[in-house]
Amino acid sequence: MKRSPASSLFSKTLSFIHRPRPADARLSSSSSYSVAATGSGALQPSFMAEYLVTSCGFSPEKAAKASNLLGGIASRRQPDAVLGFFKSHGFDDTHVKELLSWHPRWLLLDVEKTLAAKFRALQELGFSQSDITHLVLANPSVINYDVRTLVHKIRLWQGLIGSNDRLVKLFKRRQWILGYSIEKRIQPNIEMLRSCGITDQKLGMIVRYQPTLLTMRAEALRALISRAEAFGVARTSGSFHWTLSVLFTVSVERFNAQKKLFGAFGWSEAEFLDACRKTPAFLTGSLKKLKMKMEFLVNEAGYAPSYIALRPVLLAYSLEKRLIPRYQLMAALKSRGLCAGDHKLLTYMGVPEKKFLESYAYIHELRKRCKETERKKTDGGVATEEKSSKGRVHPSNTPSPVCREERGEGNCWRSLFTK
User: Fold this and answer.
1) How many CB atoms within 10 Å of residue 242?
2) Where are the domains of the chain?
3) What is the pLDDT of residues 277-323, one digit of tens each?
4) Who contacts 338 (Cβ-Cβ below 8 Å, separation ≥6)?
5) Residue 109 DSSP code
6) Residue 236 binned pLDDT confidence (cut-offs 50, 70, 90)
7) Fewer beta carbons within 10 Å, N or C terminal of the chain?
């Protein structure tokens, strides 16, 4: 009897559904499994379900489902060997449960030929035992690769990022990154970026901060490069790699919305584009945050929008942690005659926190007063308002924010003049 096309299609669909997943197929077709795990006297799935509950911490429901994948296990010796290997290499019960929940068929792996061989390869690549634990937890797929492929992938990323510590952090943040083909995706993208004049040092920065650029489809990366060039940033520019990283996170629609926002503050299109080329990082801020920063700098601090357009780095700073507290501190010091001279906004906003504290004499004077006050309190003296030799008043009956900062209790100086 001739089968109808619909019946044939239905049969093919069923056949596809019952095929194993690619990772499982790759493992089951290799010699990774222990011979003892595939004997004719296999244990019943009900036994394996109980084993997964008592030895691996599975719920009965998950254990019943996973046990159907483990029908080839002939004795406890095989799964016990796998569990023992993981626990002897720094994986606790929670880690083992997490890994086996995703990959229950790992209980079928040959410990010596598969697990031990791959862990030795990682150690030879310079990873400590704790590094390997973090690496496998973040990227369980490393167990599924053959040793040669695993070493090839790891060495490429090591060469780009420069250290195993950074590499482990990268793999924790980007658990999918090892899954991309080196030959078909990563290496071609590296060559494309190098053709744009991006050096290996800058490639390392891309890997640390925006590794997705290396995993994009080739046509998408080419389009991003064209967009950056149309943006007015030359390939020879030292900031070309940063521009690519920023534009990757900023859609065309969002970019146009930002242009409209700054236009409402009086920026021309030319000013906006010039600001973007100078400091592309400010584009990563949300529309709400960018609006709040402009309103503060224009309405409260009193700076013209054109002044900010020439110094767009101001828009890349945190409003709550830098712009507001530093401006209010400087304003308070000037109003009390504690800060002479003309201190430019960009100068005192741009310096790092430590240098900001060390660059002004009044900070040292405040520290001196705080220490003196704290000493007198320790000696049992009565806290009173004390006047310095210059006649300025320091409220010694209040625990000093600057002193708390020196004890590592946070950037408490901000509260000194902003209450």
Assistant:
1) 20
2) 20-109, 337-419
3) 999 999 999 999 999 999 999 999 999 999 999 999 999 999 999 99
4) 362, 392
5) B
6) confident
7) N
